[in-house]
Amino acid sequence: MADELSLTVGVVGAGAMGGAIARGLVESGTLGSERLLVADSDAARLASFAALGARTFADGTELLASDPDVVVLAVKPQVLGSVMEQLAPQVGGRLVISIAAGVSTSTIEAALPSARVVRVMPNLPVQVRSGATAVTAGARAGEQDVSVACEIFSALGAVAVMREDQLDVAGAVSGCAPAFFSLFVDALTRAGVMAGLPAACAREMVESTMRGCAEQLLTEGVHPREYMERVTSPGGTTAAALRELEGPLTEGTYAAIDAALARTRELAAG
Q1: What is the pLDDT at residue 1?
Q2: For residues 102 and 264, is the Cβ–Cβ distance under 8 A?
Q3: Which end of the chain is more exposed for a tag (fewer CB within 10 A), N or C?
Q4: Region 10-25: what's the mean pLDDT?
Q5: pLDDT tens per residue across span 95-116
Q6: In a domain? residue 3
Q7: Could you tell me the CA-to-CA distances from 116 to 74, 164, 201, 220 in Å, in that order?
Q8: Is 219 found in the same domain as 119?
């Protein structure tokens, strides 16, 4: 169990990502439920957090009136501007952590002039506390602020501190990766079906194999290329299959990340 934070943390936005962050903090033991504040306009979402023991609010201004030490802005980039406009009069010099893709620390600092801003880019597996989160500090954030952000998101998986120019790349790679992995599982399943396997059987075999590969890579610390070589016999079926797959998959992945970064820049430009 993680050491419990002595801070109060307010999460503005209890959607998929915000809800996962809030719930993960409590369920991991990182934050006592009485120290968690959650704001969302959806009463049904709030009910589950009230049952968890958190204090809940219909909007962020009500949450800030309860004076949290840290505010996590877990809203989409498209609405972040309007949310910050509402919160600006009350934020003061608090630590504000934003998860909005493509919205720079300087933009957030301009909207919240006294706040100490940290940007993070988590991905969906934080919902099962096995995610990946990139962290970068704004101009007014100090080492302690970064440490607090890392402690919060370490409860939800791996954390890496980096420069802001690296953050969007990390967000594209780790943020898109769950969809990429899911697409590959689906493609392998469909390939099995086309070759004659029952769909349920193909999917179960692919998913079990993916789980086993992930566990071996993590527990043994082996490089992915070395792991590939373990199952690739000279002149064998895997070698023949990789010859067809590796080029298109690699080039397609490069193009996919470029597309994700281009979209990130579009979001940042408004």
Answers
A1: 45
A2: yes
A3: N
A4: 94
A5: 999 999 889 999 999 999 999 9
A6: no
A7: 16, 15, 52, 40
A8: no
Any domain includes 18? yes
Q: Residue 89 and residue 201: Cα distance in Å, rounded?
A: 57
Note the pLDDT tens digit of each residue in 135-149: 999 999 999 999 999
- Please report, rounded to a whole number, the percentage of residues in the chain having pLDDT higher than 70: 99
As beta bridge partners, residue 117 has 96
One domain, residues 145 and 123: yes
Q: What is the mean pLDDT of the chain?
A: 94
Same domain, 207 and 155: no
Q: What are phi and psi of 132, to 5 degrees?
A: -135, 130
Q: Specify whether 138 is located in the same domain as 30.
A: yes
At 268, is the pLDDT very low, low, confident or very high (cuts 50, 70, 90)?
A: confident
Do residue 18 and residue 89 come from a single domain? yes
Q: Is the pLDDT of residue 3 over 70?
A: no
Q: How many CB atoms lie within 10 A of CB 114?
A: 12
Residue 2, domain member (yes or no):
no
